Amino acid sequence: MTAFYLPLGEDTFRSTEHTVGPWGPDSQHLGPPSALLVRALMARRPTFARVTFEVLGPVPVAELTVSTSVERPGRSVELLSASLSHEGRVVLTARAWHIVGSDTTAVAGGDVTGMAPPSSAVPMEIPDFWSGGYLAAVEWLSVSGGIFTPGDAQVWARPRVAVVDGFEPSPLERLFSVVDSASGVSSRVDIRKWYAINTDLTVHLHRQPVGEWVGMDARTTIGPDGTGLATSTVHDVEGPVGTTAQALFVRER
What we know:
Layout: E1 3-7, E2 12-15, H1 31-42, E3 50-55, E4 63-72, E5 77-86, E6 89-99, E7 122-123, H2 133-136, E8 138-146, E9 149-159, E10 162-164, H3 171-178, H4 182-185, E11 194-198, E12 200-205, E13 214-222, E14 227-236, E15 239-252
Parallel strand pairs: 1-10
Antiparallel strand pairs: 1-2, 2-4, 3-6, 3-12, 4-5, 5-6, 7-8, 8-9, 9-13, 11-15, 12-15, 13-14, 14-15
């Protein structure tokens, strides 16, 4: 397989083994289904300022159906929505704000410092207990830290496969294929002993990404009562493009 999904029709897709996440062989990492919904939303509008995903249950490695709609039409600003279903049950939703582009070059600014480039990073070590599925479908480079090094991390990622078989992914699809991993690369717990599962993902973009590489300058904070927060500044090779935030359900296995 060379993609996360095989198209079965206009709105129906079969999940491949590349989507398998860390919690079990039958459930997906949230990266591929997030990218699949963004791909569907891009058929309506090409760019987004913010996309929020709500995880309504495990996304199964199975046949999935995508639907989209316009919630709030407008000349300058529109709110779009999308959902992902399995056997009639919605497992993931997305709501995206599209803002019509204009020339703001004269007032552009405020970026944080860019990350060290992918050429200066090193391959991230992958342990034997999770060496396949989604993790193997993405090329991972570490500037500092990583998925199996507890604490803050700076990581570059590049999907090795397409989102949908037969279609070249856009930079925006590539970004959404990997940014859910911000909570993983900066995790403070051993996933063999603890659950640290995000209930949502919000991505704000102040410009649209370019290229194949996605950088995450990520950090996770865990509170004393079973919840946590993972955030990141997202980069491409030209600099910062936005931020992410994820609420975490944290429990000992």
